[in-house]
């Protein structure tokens, strides 16, 4: 933050901005003056069978209840498909690219309607009813999108589960959510790896035993790889579903009926099943995506997130389709089978808006500029990231090398609980600052709470809270409303606490400092993990780093840093030099107790660093790591323990 770069909006003079800075200010002021009126107006972005006359009717006090557009009725699949059938039935809604296949699928709105209706009929035939839960555990194939919308059409509540979870992780979630049917695949290819989806589901169901309510399993064959099928329970998806009628009258839903449950990434602890409701969610998805990733005719949005994350729900499926756009999915990896794979796909499909995770940006940056420069990326007009802090350095690389300084980079901050973008710039309208997720969207009232519990005015630092509800706010944690209340509404009574810390600068821009759990207090100095990591990110020999606090007898807490050096720079980077760098940039108090050079870091399945695990390893609490179901690779734990504590 010390040497902030500011890139004025005028840099992107050719960008099709959807409003002027003045109009944005007016919108902000209007939302603040009359939130109910503002949100009822935004609710018109989607199709209602019965238009709502009320906006927010809940309360952050007492038991906490979050309710929006309560007297409205709609069906989310209608918002995303039927309303576009007349106007743009032949427009491509979904491009599905699969590695190793000659042709990609291009599914128009009419085709999507047919497929969704067939599956809606099939699920109904299997006895799935409104309000029941259906788990979707699929790789990035078109059936995943169809399945979500088919659930929405019959009023079933979908629970999308990441295919890479272990059988235990899946069993636990199937039981917790009370799922009655599962839609999965035989196998999936992840780069050179074969992931056994069906086998894992079988094992999960065996483990869950009588605690599971699953009566039916639909299996998409993504390849010829055979799998065992249990007669009476398992059905081959296409053999079964394609026989059903291509029309299905959507079930009328109340705005507050749940649309889906989604488990959080599990970065900070046991994953929680967040509940989102039909009306508020779809309005919010259409609004947030419409403001930042505005679809214009011919646009192709490629959000590389897996559908199993909130970004996959809102930026791959519901946002783009509710706005009548074209969305793309792909099962490819950024650097497999060769570096630059994603850039070739951008060119091949003429992607105009690319949205990915900072970890992917860092991976591609590590391959060097030439990989990008020899490709044609002229189709791009907007670049985005979300999910983790992006260092100014990686931001600038994305902007300068990938975007050739032509495309705004939108760093958006959001959570499973917020369902859509909360902090993020309006491209072409607001000045950008690399490393900052800019400002809240109009209608979001963000507050920083200081250590005394007071609201910070003007520039400052504190716990990131939201003081008024927004339509896409999580309604509860499935089956545990008390945990919901305690997690989000007790730190700052009367406000929603995000769990993250942030700074606000004199222009009102927000800078995420990391999870509040991870704020380190060294002899009275508060230090955000993101601040330490930012210093290291400026060194080009470093791919990534993670800072954690450990108890210290004198200072209260001490800093421990894990660093991944670039492969070609491994010999040059020393732990002492990095230690000195941190102390010289942030102050002597920040001198780390230890710096460990490591080949990789523990990550969630969604690619985020699991700092709580690093903290435990650094502290030597290596007996009990807690719930590790969200962890991507268990081998890393032993490797890090060995690195820190010697061979065990
Ligand atoms: P869990 O809640 O289970 O610990 P999680 O918080 O990682 O997991 P998500 O809801 O997927 O699960 O992630 C939201 C979090 O990701 C935010 O609270 C924030 O810490 C981080 N995050 C998201 N976007 C950004 C961003 N643009 N900049 C910085 N951090 C971000
Ligand atoms: Mg979280």
TrEMBL record:
Keywords of this entry: Acetylation, ATP-binding, Ligase, Nucleotide-binding
GO terms under biological process: acetyl-CoA biosynthetic process from acetate
Residues of the AMP-binding enzyme C-terminal domain: 531-608
Keyword Acetylation (UniProt): yes
Pfam families: ACAS_N, AMP-binding, AMP-binding_C
Keyword Magnesium: no
Molecular-function GO terms, alphabetical: acetate-CoA ligase activity; AMP binding; ATP binding
Limits of the Acetyl-coenzyme A synthetase N-terminal domain: 25-80
E.C. number: 6.2.1.1
Domain AMP-dependent synthetase/ligase: 86-469
Family membership noted in the UniProt record: Belongs to the ATP-dependent AMP-binding enzyme family.
Protein's name according to its UniProt entry: Acetate--CoA ligase
Native organism: Acetobacter vaccinii
